[in-house]
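Dear support,

We are seeing what looks like truncated structure output for some complexes. This example has two components. We would appreciate it if you could run it in full and send us the complete token output so we can diff it against ours.
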Amino acid sequence: NAGVMQNPRHLVRRRGQEARLRCSPMKGHSHVYWYRQLPEEGLKFMVYLQKENIIDESGMPKERFSAEFPKEGPSILRIQQVVRGDSAAYFCASSPNQGAANEQFFGPGTRLTVL
Amino acid sequence: LAKTTQPISMDSYEGQEVNITCSHNNIATNDYITWYQQFPSQGPRFIIQGYKTKVTNEVASLFIPADRKSSTLSLPRVSLSDTAVYYCLVGGYILTGGGNKLTFGTGTQLKVEL
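Here is the complete output from our reference environment:
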């Protein structure tokens, strides 16, 4: 059973460009979460989605950021008009409907660098 | 969400037992205590979770006193490969049927040497 997959692993963008980060959850998992990690800091929750629904986006900036988890295909985190402060590691996690509370399976992350 | 406090760093040697304590004075009745491990350039990995007393699995033990205001992650006989950041998280289900956002602090950087 493949783990959570994220691509690309590294992404370089210039200021003002768009960044698209993809996440394929583990097979059978219907809950997807996105987190951001700045250097030397812990992960910060951004958004929680289920298929075709955003459940909780309380950690996501109101502007330039959006997320989706379509019926078919991976979850996408989209950052428009990137700025240098968006440079960070973005982790996706997934969890099944049943299982231990708070157990999430994390992908390897996408490291975004904004020049 | 309950705030957690844990040491910024710890040093140990191979073969020793390491105990990392986390304080969570404001833990709520339905909160679980969960520990994650993160290696550089990787996503966090679930280690262990508990609600009260003691939980043990193949990699660690988790001790939770009766008042649940703290918890201790115990790693037996650490090796160099246990060098990582360890996060203590406190929280429960926000929605029934699964799904919960996790709140990570800055964690404890464990360094294991020969």
